[in-house]
TrEMBL record:
Entry annotated with the keyword Hydrolase: no
Cofactor: pyridoxal 5'-phosphate
Domain Tryptophan synthase beta chain-like PALP stretches: 5-293
Family: Belongs to the ACC deaminase/D-cysteine desulfhydrase family.
Secreted listed as a keyword: no
Protein name: 1-aminocyclopropane-1-carboxylate deaminase/D-cysteine desulfhydrase
Keywords, sorted A to Z: Pyridoxal phosphate
Native source species: Ohtaekwangia kribbensis
PANTHER family documented for this protein: 1-AMINOCYCLOPROPANE-1-CARBOXYLATE DEAMINASE-RELATED
Lineage: Bacteria, Pseudomonadati, Bacteroidota, Cytophagia, Cytophagales
Length: 306
């Protein structure tokens, strides 16, 4: 239903890795689709199937003004012949930024709400109000994380086992992608998440998602293996992009031909190299870093790669 392009595994060479005796591979999942890239493809795959099964004609979802999720849903809706509505946190600002302009060009209708109302996005009464305003639609939560997203990410995790590696590293925001991949890997590899947000809440959030998915599958004995979340590489959170991170992303692009974004994958690669320096990974081991896309957001930072 949603087209998928097979993606390469790119070996990454760096003096830090050579000194530590570590091999680093990057799964370029940012190349799986021109617009619905990275983990967004996997999170939306079964949501789109479910919307079609329910005979829904419109997708409604939530996000901020620079949301990768809003961008991806707008593109997926167009490709799969759905209408789309985006509930956007905050007031309209004109001219539209590249993310929201793209969404409107793909036919998404934008509805701006106050931050107070936006916090109600998971409440039943608020969803009912949206149904009264927009009639029938299929709701996808902010970031796309629900049972169907976990199903898609679990499928992706299982497919990753065809690659030879010891550690899987990925950036995590809401925890949905990581929870699904933990399910799919089923204890066969160690998984390291890099939180892009302040705080240490993600470990519990991922655990809750895993419990919910196990209950959905009626699996009372799931196998998750060793996983953990690193919480010291957020660089200030979503909206913070310090110069040191910008310079790192520029270096990765210019010297290693690896495009990264400031919110997710830039922090991921920074964290991986720092943890290599600290001796976290065993000498002789192979790391697979997951490029989860999100490059559309990089255009919001002028001259990021120059």
């Amino acid at each position: 239903m949603l087209k998928y392009q097979s993606t390469p595994v790119q070996e990454f060479h760096h003096a830090t890795l050579e000194k530590a005796g570590i091999r680093l591979m990057v799964k370029r999942e940012d190349l799986n689709h021109p617009f619905v890239s990275g983990n967004k493809w996997w999170k939306l795959k079964y949501n789109l199937e479910e919307a079609s099964r329910l005979n829904k004609k419109t997708l409604l979802t939530f996000g901020g003004a620079y949301s990768n999720h809003i961008y991806a849903v707008a593109a997926a809706a167009t490709e799969c012949n759905f209408k789309s509505i985006g509930i956007i946190r905050g007031e309209e600002v004109l001219p539209l930024n590249p993310t929201l302009r793209f969404a409107t060009e793909r036919g998404m209708k934008l509805h701006y709400v106050s931050r107070e109302d936006y916090r109600k996005k998971n409440e039943t009464d608020y969803i009912q109000q949206l149904h009264e305003a927009f009639r029938d639609f299929y709701a996808i939560p902010e970031g796309g994380t629900n049972i169907f997203a976990l199903q898609g990410c679990a499928e992706f995790g299982q497919a990753l086992l065809n690659i030879d590696f010891d550690y899987l590293c990925l950036a995590t925001g809401t925890g949905g992608t990581m929870a699904g991949i933990i399910e799919g890997i089923a204890g066969k590899r160690e998984i390291i998440g890099v939180s892009v947000l302040k705080g240490d809440f993600l470990t519990q959030e991922i655990s809750n998602l895993l419990e919910t998915y196990a209950a959905y599958k009626k699996n009372s004995m799931p196998v998750y293996g060793k996983w953990n979340v690193l919480t010291s590489y957020h660089h200030g959170g979503y909206a913070k992009v310090p110069d040191v991170l910008k310079n790192f992303i520029r270096e990765m692009h210019q010297q290693h031909n690896l495009p990264l974004d400031p919110v997710y994958t830039g922090k991921l690669m920074w964290a991986v190299l720092e943890e290599v320096k600290k001796g976290f990974f065993k000498r002789g081991s192979t790391i697979l870093a997951l490029h989860t896309g999100g490059l559309q957001g990089a255009v919001s930072y002028p001259n990021l790669y120059e």
